[in-house]
Structure formats: structure tokens, C-alpha cells
Amino acid sequence: SYYNEYKSYLRTRMSTAMVWKSFEHDTMRSMESAMEEREKVKMKSLRKVLNIMCVHVKIQGFNIAVPVVNQLQSLYHLAREALQRLQDSGIDIDIECDQCYFKKFHRDEFYIIKSSDIIKDVLSDGDLVEILIKQNTPKKLKNQPRTSESDKFSMEVPSPKNTPRPPLIEIDGQSLDLDSLMALSDGTYKIRIKEETLYRLGQTRQVVKDIIKQGLVRYGINTGYGILSKVVIEDKELEQLSYNVVRSHCVGVGEPLTQEAVRRMLALRINVLSKGASGCSVELVEHMVDMFNKSCLPFIPAQGTVGASGDLCPLAHLAIGIIGEGRMWSPLTEWGNAADVLRANGLQPYKLQVKDGISLINGTQFICAIGSEALDRARNCLRTAVIANAIVLDVLEGHVEAFDERVHLARPHPGQGKIAAAMRALCHSKKYPSEMYEKIEKHDVQDPYTIRCLPQVLGITLDTLNFVANILETEFNSATDNPLVFVQKNGQPGDHDVISAGNFHGEYPAKALDYLAIAAHEIGNMAERRIERLVNPTMSKLPAFLVENAGLNSGFMMAHVTSAALVSENKTLCFPSSADTQTTSAGKEDHVSMGGWSARKALKIVENLENVLAIELACACQALEFRRPYHTTAPLEAVYNLVRREVEPLVTDRYLADDFKIIQGMIRRNEIWKTAMTFLEEDPLW
Question: What pTM value is reported for the model?
């Protein structure tokens, strides 16, 4: 009787959900919600009377509702029933139930429970549990390849048959580029260390061991740090030294970094250590790879670095999670204590060895993690600005002659030529004619600078972005530790160098990102002026503020004001933070780069720029409405159609903030440029 009523309830709920999903009215959604709650209460009461429990079980992304009649059984039987239900549905997962563990979720916490536990003792009706698998590991044989921590104890269920593995990016400390780093941001890609890289790490690690064994004194290995470098540390305290330097440097404040930024930071630190000049333990790097591949991401505050000796503070917050202290996030657990999160993902807090601590916190990976995002998004902004300018040129009766190839060969700056080529590809031509260009009478023989001089202004922006990319990619693959450990070519005992130098100094990426800030701001300067020309009827010969019945309607009047506010804000953010310095560490660190702020404010400028360009693109598409029935070129019409799929034309005043947010998302995802590029044979910019 219970099962029949329960099945009937499920069928009703499924059909109800499908019916209500087709309605958008708030009242309908409210009715559905109320009905849902009443049904939940009804079914829960029924289960209570019948002494039947319903447990929600999660296995490798699959969710199964399992009714439990006999609550005196163990969780082993719950696992067997859940797997049987999956197999009945055609999903084959090869698991031995006696290897199962369970993770029970309760509010913001979770608990690990054994398969031998009795159901009624550890679960309640409606609980959510996830099946975890402990894998048996054979005894390691001599000369067998090294096994990482995630191989020894995996809390993930094996994937269903024929499920493709996540794509891998190999790390070797020498070849990481911007595109690969950005691909690692969202957790889709995993990391693998090349075998030759592990060998190189082992060589420099042996140098550190030999120094300790021979009783030699080397900075950063068995001394204090900074002004305390004269203090020699006893061998028995060297591991404690590693812990102390990590804990003492966790002094950051401010908002936490995004998950994407932490992933990039962790990937960059793995890559730098893989360079093989730090002398850290091989196991440490393997553990960091395991953390990355499980998306175990420590809490890292955004403020606290001066960019020399590298990003000490934020890197210490990265390192503290590695040893199981502080807070950490993972998809499996959400936020929790780092040690608990690591264990839930089949890892253990790492036990630091000699020199591991200082090897984790010296370098510019915070600057590069934030700066790389600023650069990637600035590229998309530049692309969008070219497209917006092409639309504005057409609706404001502009001229394409200014982009003639001969003009730009006469002043052969690389970026200038590429921007001009992009304008020629997008604007009126024999291949892609524009009805507006051909049929609307032009009232001026010369265009304003913000349209005519786009190649000369955005050309240097393009060259600057390429310059910044070269600096950052070099930094991605640089040994930025201190001291650096070198193994000589002949490999004889004692044939090595340990050198204390200054590769940690962040001046290179700091200066580059200050250049990026200025270059990105200039894109916004041009865009804001074009917005003014679109909404000002004395300049555009279009309806005031791009709306009918102006006066009753204000149209895009305030949208232009917002763009002016953002551009002005960016002007103040363009002050180069690398022009400043503050003496720290009792005078030992008497010049610093301030590169952390260079990166953060560059990213803020780019975010503001995205919004300015979103407003310009919204205005440009609105201006096209007043040029109908004529059409612009095919690539630009495709961009118009892309925008119009999400944003309607402005007929009368309405709430516009969401429209700009939608277009900003298109810019950030590079959808504007990709849409136009479907009409071109090659990308004229990159």
C-alpha cells in the first residue's frame, strides 16, 4: 500500500513539475511551491506512521531515493540497494559494497560513517548521504613508479563505463601559457607532472639533503629569514621552521579570492616548483597536484602582499591549506576545516619537510593569478570594442577610407595594422556590403577621432596586451624561489650551488600590469565618447537618447552617465602602484613592487571596462533600430542578432541594468567576437 501511494505521489509530482515549468507567472510558481510543501509534509507523515525512512543517496553525480523499511540493517544494505537501482536504470558502476564508506551531510557539516553502522543509529528520514570508496593499494615494489596520495585512498566512486576522463594539461615548469592557465581556472582540466620533471625535482632535493648531512649552512635551508638570516637553526628544528614560516605569514585581510583565482594560483605554484630550482620535496609537489585535481582550494584573502619577497602572505594562505590548517573549499564538501576537506577527498594534511615551507611562499603567483585574468578579459574587451566601433561607424554615417591598408603601411606599427585590418573585415566591403553605408547620405567628409583613429589608439593597446602576455608567460615559467638550488651538469658529489638572489621580486609583472591598466582604460575612454555621440541628437541625427517620445522617456540618458562614472573611476585606478614602494622586514626588504595591487586594480579596471562596452553595444544595437529597413554588414548583423536574442529593443523606459549585465557576460565569454569571426577566414587580431 505504501509503495503504491509513493509511486502515485512521484508520478503526480513529475507531471506537476512539467506542467508548472511551462508557466512563468509568479502566482503559478507560488502555487507550485505551496503544493510541493504540502506534499512533502504529507509523505513525511505517512512514512513516519509506517516506520519507513527515505534516504537520498549520491553516487558519482547520480542521485537515488532509497526507501528503507528495515532500519535495523547496516548501511551495507543501503549501498547494495542504491547500486541495484542504478543498474536497473542501465547505469553500470563496478563497486564492491564492502569497500563502501558514507559521507552524511547535515546543515553545513558532514560526517564519515562506516558501512557496518546500523541505519537507525546514524540516519534520519530525508538524510542525504554520499557513497565513498576506499581502494586497496598493493604493497609498493622496488623501482615501482611513485604513487600519489590520491591513488592511495580515493573517496570518489569509479566513473561509469565509457565515461571520458577529464582532459589533462601537463606541467613541466617551462611551457605553461596564458590559454592553458585560463583553461585550468574552472576545474574542467586536471594536471599531470611529466616524468622528467619529477626526476629533476629529485635531483635538487638531494642537494638539500646533502647540505644537511654535511653540516653546511645555507640561507633558507637551515637559517632564519630576512633580517634573521644570521640565525642558524639546529637540524632537529628544521621541519618546525617550515611550519613556522607558513603559519607566521598567514596575516592576510580582505575579501577571499575566487575559486578560479585560487586554482590558477595553485597551478602556477606547482609549475614554478616543477622548474626544479627550489629544492622542495617531490612528495610536496605531488600532493599539490592531488589537491588541484580534487579542487581542494584554501581560503586566500586578497590583501596583504607588497610583491617582494614575492607574494609571501597570500602564498602562505595557500600553503596553510596544504598542511590541513585554515579553511578550505571543495566541490565534495563546500567550505570546511582544511584537514576535514582533505580527508573527505581522500587526502591527508601534508607533513612539511626541510625547506618545504619557504619553497611554498616565495614567488609572484598571486600577481600572476590575478593579472592573467585581467589580461584574458582585456583581450575580449579589445575585440568587442572593435566590433562596437564598426557598428557605430555605420549608424553614424562614417567612412571606411580611414582604414585603407596603404595608410597603415605608411606607419607600420603591428597593432595599428591589425586593428585596421579588423575594421576592413567588419565594415562595408565588396564581400560584406552594408545597405546603410550605400544608401544613407553622409553629411560630413571626416569622422571624429574616436571612430577614425581607432587603429592608432587601440593599436598600441593591442601591442601593450601582447607585451604584457610575454612578460606574464615568462613569469609563469620562472624560478621565483629564494634561495635557488642548482645541480651542475657533471653531477659529482658536492657539485652544486645554493644561491640567495632576488627572482621573487615582482617588478616585472607589476610594471606590466600597470601598463595593462592604462591600455585597458584607453579602450573605455574611446567607448564613452562614442556613447555620447550615439545618445546626443545634435551629433547622431538620431532620436534623443535613442528612444521614441523623448521627454516622456529618458532612454539611454543615464546609461551614458554610468559609463562616464566608470571611465572616471578607471582614471584614478590608472596610477601605477609599481611607482610606490615601502620598506619592510626591518629594512632588509627596502624596495618592493606593490604588484599585488597592480594586479587587483588592473582587474577592476577591466571589469569596469566590460560594463562600459556593454552599454556601448546596447546603444549601438538600439541605434540600428532607427536605421531600418537598411541593414549593416553580415558580421555586424550577426552580432546584433546575438544581442537581440537576450535583450529587446528599448520602446519605452524600462529597467536596463539587467540588459547590461547580460551583454557584459557575452563580452566576458568572448561571444561577441566569436559570432563575428564565423564570417571571417582568420582572426585579424590574434
Answer: 0.76
